[in-house]
Write a structure and sequence with these properties.
By secondary structure, the chain is mainly beta. It folds into 2 domains: 71 residues, Translation Initiation Factor IF3 (2-Layer Sandwich), CATH 3.30.110.40; 80 residues, Sandwich (Jelly Rolls). Helices cover 14% and strands 44% of the residues. It is built from 2 helices and 13 strands. Strands 5-6-13-8-11 form a 5-stranded antiparallel sheet, with no helix packed on it. A 4-stranded mixed sheet has the order 1-2-4-3, with helices on one face. Strands 7-12-9-10 form a 4-stranded antiparallel sheet, with no helix packed on it. Strand 1, helix 1 and strand 2 form a beta-alpha-beta unit. The protein is elongated and about 50 Å long.
Length: 167
């Protein structure tokens, strides 16, 4: 893992320096940035400039110090992915995009509790848990058990995953 403390850089050079460092990473490598404020605008910039190329994990979330791990995704990883869009304190939020007619199979969903909700048209089916999830609803899925998610129309689903194994 590489580390970059951007607190010491002049503000006009922070994002360009981070982008340069990220471009030099090999797939699977991580750059940890340290900042004095939430670097969320950088995430939007990276998502726009390099869509799907990096994962973003909050290690420390303020109020005075933020540490964020930005990892370059490996193009060699096969199978369905949960893109972690937020990782802080006791939970993670993961995003899954499912195309119409697509079926995504997961050996197990992580953590002690996983709640899923989605945006899109029609229902999303979760096989193995026997759930049909309607748009805008929230459903507890089967953490630690295999399941498959499918939809007749394109959907964007979010998992809220508890990191606390006791819950």
């Amino acid at each position: 893992m590489f580390e970059l403390d951007v607190r010491v850089l002049p503000p006009p050079h922070k994002h360009s320096t981070i982008r340069e460092r990220l471009e030099r990473l090999n797939t699977g490598q991580t750059l940890r940035i340290i900042n004095d404020h939430d670097p969320r605008p950088l995430r939007y910039e990276l998502d726009d400039t390099y869509p799907g190329a990096f994962t973003w994990t909050y290690v420390e979330c303020g109020p005075k110090l933020w540490r964020v791990d930005i990892a370059k995704k490996s193009e060699a990883i096969a199978g369905p992915q949960i893109d972690i869009v937020a990782d802080c304190h006791a939970m993670q939020v993961g995003e899954i995009r499912i195309k119409a007619g697509e079926r995504r199979t997961f050996e197990t969903l992580p953590a002690a509790a996983a709640v899923i909700f989605h945006r899109g048209e029609g229902t999303m089916n979760i096989a193995g848990c026997s759930h049909a999830v309607a748009p805008g609803t929230v459903e507890l899925v089967c953490p630690g058990e295999p399941c498959a998610i499918s939809a007749a129309q394109d959907v964007q689903a979010f998992l809220v995953i508890s990191k606390d194994e006791d819950n």
